[in-house]
Amino acid sequence: MTTFVDLLFVGLGLGAVFSLLGLSFALIFRVTHIFHFAHGGVFAIAAYVFYTLSTQHGLPIVLGILGAMAGAAIAGCAIYLLLYQPLERRRTRMLGMFVTALGMLVIIENGLSLIFTSSPQYVTPNALAAPLLRSGEIVLPRIDALELGVAAFVIALVALVWNRTRVGLVLRAIETNRDLAETLGVRYDLYACVAFALGSAVVAVAAVLQSLTLSITPFIGTSAMIDAFVAMVIGGTGSIWAAAAGGMILGIAQTIPLEWISGSWINAVSFGLLIAVLLFRPNGLVSGVRKSKRRSNSNRRPGAGLGQFLARTKQEAGTIP
To answer: What are the backbone dihedrals phi and psi of residue 9, each rounded to the nearest 5 degrees, phi first?
Structure first.
């Protein structure tokens, strides 16, 4: 029983990181429909920025996190403007965009290897070594509690931006109907860059949390993006929140079986879950439930309120930037 509870705590902490990975990947994919596998390179850049600021220069962890988020946001927006936007103007197919993203990931990984070498780097704050809570033989690690708390805060902040701000409303309008949004005056290229910056800032937090427990190498982004993709598919591609929930499911699925099987089988468990979801619930474990509830509780067309808002804003302000 003690082992199960310990693994559950670890799974919740790992799931919190996967939730941020899935959320960040889904933010970009839902708005732009770009399979941004170079997101893994941004993940690695954020980890190294955090390592440089907090370990090499001795800055407080909070400043290291903010620096990593800023660096990741700049990198993500730059990748969109320099790489994806020209391809979009040439109407490149999704497969071509995906192959280009893989190429950019390899370039970033090799660039980081030239700058930092391929040797593992470590960030190990001593304050996180002690347990946060101990009750008999059950121990709640401080790092797992930190991962859960930070992930919950970031997800709540993204929800606030997504649902309560004008920027979030325009992003949802593009997600629902890009052609209608552009007809009403929305500059797609500007808000696509915003989506890349927002998603990159979120993945930077995941990179920081992972770097507190695992080593940093130029190639950590590849496995992170596989986890992000699996989390998004398990939760469902129809909603960014479903992708975040899928990350939590994936984290628990990777740790609870360790009580009965070897850790070498964990990837098999993850991809077995992925295949089962694709076969039996192709809309995802969470997204399908959300869609059915929307259909039963509302007869309004999706995006109608967004279109009305954008039309009213255009009339009042003349145009939407």
So the answer is: -60, -45
125: confidence class by pLDDT, cuts 50, 70, 90: low
Concatenating the DSSP letter of every residue in 87-136 gives HHHTT--HHHHHHHHHHHHHHHHHHHHHHH-SS-B----GGGTSEEEEET
Task: Measure the CA–CA gap between 159 and 241, rounded to whole angstroms.
Answer: 9
Q: Spell out the residues 6+ positions from residue 203 whose beta carbon is closer than 8 angstroms to its own.
A: 20, 21, 24, 25, 39, 42, 43, 46, 72, 224, 228
Partners of 65 in the β-ladder: none
Instruction: Write down the mean pLDDT value for the chain.
Output: 84
Distance (Å) of CA 227 to CA 14, 80, 116, 246, 248: 11, 22, 24, 10, 11
The position carrying tokens 């967004």 is 306
CA distance 19 to 252: 11
Say what the alpha-carbon torsion angle 76, 80, 82, 83 is, to the nearest 10 degrees.
110
53 pLDDT band, cuts 50/70/90, is: very high
Separation CA 248–CA 265 (nearest Å): 19
Are 33 and 247 in contact by the 8 Å Cβ rule? The answer is: no
Contact 181, 173 (CB under 8 A): yes
- Please give the Cα distance from 283 to 220 (Å, whole number): 28
Lowest mean pLDDT among 12-21, 217-226, 230-239: 230-239
Calculate the CA 301 to chain-centre distance.
28
Helices (H), 212-256: 220-235, 240-255
The pair phi, psi for residue 16, each rounded to 5°, is -65, -40
Sequence-distant (≥ 6) Cβ neighbours of residue 241 within 8 angstroms? 23, 159, 235, 286, 290
At 236, list the tokens.
């469902």
The pLDDT score that the predictor gives to residue 299 is 41
Residue where the block lists tokens 């040439």: 90
pLDDT, mean of residues 221-237 = 89
Q: Which of 150, 138, 142 is nearest to 124 (CA)?
A: 142
Q: Is 186 in a helix, a strand, or coil? A: coil
